Amino acid sequence: MSKNKPAEIANNKPAHEIRINGLRATVWKNETEKGPRFNTTFERCYKDGDEWKTSDSYGREDLLLLAFMAKRAFEFIAQQPTK
Q: What confidence tens digit (pLDDT) does each residue in 4-28 have?
């Protein structure tokens, strides 16, 4: 699975990941002068032949799972200590 990410994200390990039915929410931690900030990316993983690929396009059946994963990502971020 490869997808171009911003340089600051691509070089860091995720703070947290949530995976459900081929969907992935990744929480990234970025240190700033004001303390840690978190961003979340969402992607759908699928297999094209023998190769795994990712997409940021979602079907109707994905939307409720995305909402659930966004809630879980929010809960994770809300539990993190602040500066």
A: 555 555 567 999 999 999 999 999 9
